[in-house]
Amino acid sequence: MELIVLGSSGSYPSPTSPCSGYLVRCGDTQVWMDCGHGTFANLQMHAAVEDLDAIVLTHEHPDHCVDIYGLHVLLRYGIERSGLPVFAPPGAEQRLGGLVKSWGDTFDWQVVDDGAKTDVGDMRLRFSRTDHPPPTFAVEITGDDRRLVYTADTGPGWSVSAFDAEADLVLSEATYLHDHREANLHLSARQAGEAARASKAGRLMLTHLWPAIDQEASAEEGSEAFGAPVTLAAPHLITRV
């Protein structure tokens, strides 16, 4: 399994990174997980759009979903592909569809809920409702005897321990430094590290980084809490899970 970071900024793009977006590969299967601002451009540097097997939208905040519109235009009017599965929270098809005349048959919208499971090619996906409005779902991806957990956005009321322990890699939001938390809608680097450590994760990568924070300090804080060096997500970073 391979994780490619397309963007890692939290809430708004930084000068050097789009918002949240990740390409996950396993065998012949490719899944685009979150479509935040600017990630569609970076996706096309790593994959042919026609080879995508599914899209996952963890929630409807623009920094996680807005590039679905560019994808829709290319698929519908460019390469004329239909039926691409999109796994998204209940009602996302209708609410996001308010900005387009019609989705047509471009996407096959699949509703996910807490505990939902589905197979996409060589991957098994499982979802867990996090502590974040609007309804937001963390994703566990299993394939090729490897396991990736992506927290999506969450406050401290949810933990990666909602999934089985000992994931090979936890990709965790870490919006803030712990002493400068603006709200409980997101985690600090310390909270991300503590949660990953409690779940006995093999490795931890921090993402959804607030553009104005000191990223070196974030890495230090997360590493101290996790008990081992953490990786900071950055555009075009490719990691073997």
Q: Which keywords apply here?
A:
globular; 7-stranded mixed beta sheet; Metallo-beta-lactamase, Chain A; 241 residues; alpha/beta; 14 strands
What does this protein structure show overall?
The chain is built from 6 helices and 14 strands. With 241 residues, it is α/β, with parallel strands linked by helices. The chain has one domain: Metallo-beta-lactamase, Chain A (4-Layer Sandwich). The strands form 2 sheets. The chain has a 7-stranded mixed sheet. A hairpin with a 2-residue loop joins strand 2 and strand 3. It is globular and about 50 Å long. The mean pLDDT is 97.
Number of spatially distinct domains: 1
SS-based class: alpha/beta
User: What is the succession of H and E elements?
Assistant: EEEHEHHEHEEEEEEHEHEE
- Determine the strand fraction and express it as a percent band: 25-35%
List the helices and strands and how they pair.
Blueprint: E1 2-7, E2 21-26, E3 29-35, H1 39-43, E4 54-56, H2 62-65, H3 68-78, E5 84-88, H4 92-96, E6 107-111, E7 117-120, E8 123-129, E9 137-143, E10 146-150, E11 169-173, H5 189-198, E12 203-207, H6 215-226, E13 231-232, E14 238-240
Parallel strand pairs: 3-4, 4-5, 5-6, 10-11, 11-12, 12-13
Antiparallel strand pairs: 1-2, 1-14, 2-3, 7-8, 8-9, 9-10
Helix pairs in contact: 5-6
Quick description:
Helix content is 20%, strand content 29%. The chain is an alpha/beta fold and 241 residues long.
